[in-house]
Each structure stands twice: as structure tokens, then as C-alpha cells.
Design goal:
This is AraC family transcriptional regulator. About 40% of the residues lie in helices and about 20% in strands. The protein contains nine helices and eleven strands. It has helices spanning about 5-10, 110-120, 130-140, 160-170, 175-185, 190-200, 205-220, 225-230, 235-250, and strands at about 20-25, 30-35, 40-50, 50-55, 60, 65-70, 75-80, 85-90, 105, 145, 150-155. It has about 260 residues and is an alpha+beta fold.
């Protein structure tokens, strides 16, 4: 099995056998998406370089710089990675560490990140006392406080799925709620109620959250702030930067690429 296949599947043949297995996977030169799959173990997905978005159940998640996505065992998910991405997968046996029982983004302290990357370099059959101690330190230091900024609730309604598919394909032309109501042959009031019921957000907040996801994905994949602003239909990079900073507290440049080691 090639590195590319490993990346697409987010799977390693030993991922469900050891107590905690870490695998550093090299990406390809093209964007790629894995088929939906699941693991018995819980999984931390860390972007070492480039970007990755994950579709888990009814939500779209972005794995931003210095963070990891936690996917509990048994959850169907797929991964979409940017060109030249390098990912690290940490598989954790159910009950081995106190982790949330729901999908979430976790901010990783530098110590945790370095421990994961170091474990990924060790031979997978190595179950030495040294490795066991490192794993226990890692488990003790894993963050438990989730960050909910980096996900987008995914609607089940087929009409809203059409809307989000169009917005993802043409992010510079996301349209207003009024326009979407006409396109979907609904009243604006009924569309507003449907979006709120399906996603828990109003249209404006949900649309802005999608823009953040697409922006972070583009920036992590190597696009410049100017290019990302254009991708999302902004007339100037300044307007995009101001909007981004007001909402997330950091400028888009913070997400330019992922950390390298």
C-alpha cells in the first residue's frame, strides 16, 4: 500500500492493534479525498503541512494550524487534503485516554504535538518501556477542551445540500438569502426557518462560517491572502482581512500554511 493510498484511507494496517499508534503520512501532488470509512479506535488527525477538511457525520470540519481533529471510534468520516499535505494520525484505544465522546477540534500544546510526531517516527512494532512511558505522558497531556469555531453543520435537507454544494464550488458567488429563496422556490421566511432548524445557525452566520472553512483550507494549502480574498469574492484583501480578524481574532496570515518540523 502506497503513502498516497494510506493518506486517502486515513488507515494503517496496524492502527487497530496497538494501544496508541501514530503514523506520519506523506501526501500527493494533487488534492484528494478519501472514501467514507470508520475506525474502531478514536483518531486524532493532525496536519503537519498543508490543510485537511473532514466530513464527519453531519458536519464539515477544518483542521487548522496547531490543532487536531478528534474523531471518536466508530464515526463515519472522509478526509479532503490539499496538495503536498503531510498528515499525522494518532489512533487511541477506546478508554485508554479520557477523550470527548463527540467530534471536536482540539488546540495542541507544543509538547503534545512533538510527542505525537516523535511516536510517529518509532517502529510500529516497538512496544518498549520507553515507548509506553511516552504514550502515557502523551495521554496525560492531551487537551480535553474542544474548540467549536472550526466546523460547519451540514444540512440533511436536499435543497440545502444543493445550496452548500454550489457555494463550495463557486465560493465567490454564494448569493444572498433572498436569491436562494427564489432559486429554491421558497419564501425567504421559510428558507430562514429551514436553515435554522437544520444547522442551528441563521443564514448569515452559517454562510460566514462556510467562508471561514474555505478560507482556512485555501490558506493552509498555500494560497496567499490576496488569492483567498479573490476566491471568496472580496473586492480587496483589506476587506477580507478586517472581516476575518473581527470574527476569529486573528488575521488570515496566521493560517498561511501549517507548521513544519
Amino acid at each position: 500500500m502506497s503513502d498516497h493510498q494510506l493518506l486517502l484511507e486515513g488507515y494503517h494496517p496496524d492502527s487497530d492493534t496497538a494501544l496508541a499508534s501514530a503514523f506520519l503520512i506523506a501526501g500527493s501532488d494533487n488534492q484528494c479525498e478519501s472514501p467514507r470509512h470508520r475506525h474502531r479506535k478514536g483518531q486524532l488527525i493532525l496536519a503537519v503541512h498543508g490543510g485537511v477538511t473532514c466530513n464527519v457525520m453531519n458536519a464539515l470540519w477544518i483542521v487548522p494550524k496547531n490543532c487536531a481533529l478528534w474523531v471518536p471510534g466508530g464515526r463515519d468520516h472522509s478526509n479532503h487534503v490539499t496538495p503536498n499535505a503531510r498528515l499525522c494520525f494518532l489512533f487511541i484505544e477506546p478508554g485508554a485516554a479520557e477523550m470527548p465522546d463527540f467530534c471536536c477540534t482540539l488546540a495542541l500544546p507544543a509538547l503534545v504535538r512533538e510527542l505525537i510526531l516523535h511516536l510517529a517516527t518509532l517502529p510500529q512494532g516497538n512496544d518498549s518501556p520507553v515507548r509506553q512511558r511516552l504514550v502515557q505522558v502523551l495521554f496525560d497531556q492531551l487537551p480535553r477542551k474542544p474548540d467549536s469555531q472550526y466546523y460547519l453543520p451540514y444540512p440533511e435537507d436536499k435543497r440545502l445540500r444543493r445550496m452548500i454544494d454550489y457555494m463550495r464550488e463557486y465560493p465567490a458567488d454564494m448569493l444572498l438569502q433572498y436569491d436562494w429563496a427564489k432559486t429554491l422556490a421558497m419564501s425567504e421566511r421559510n428558507l430562514s426557518r429551514l436553515i435554522l432548524r437544520e444547522t442551528g445557525m441563521n443564514f448569515r452566520r452559517w454562510k460566514q462560517q462556510l467562508q471561514f472553512i474555505l478560507a482556512i483550507e485555501a490558506l493552509s494549502g498555500g494560497a496567499s491572502v490576496q488569492q483567498t480574498a479573490g476566491l471568496l469574492g472580496y473586492d480587496s484583501a483589506t476587506a477580507f482581512i478586517n472581516m476575518f480578524k473581527r470574527a476569529l481574532g486573528k488575521t488570515p496570515g496566521h493560517w498561511s500554511g501549517a507548521f513544519t518540523r
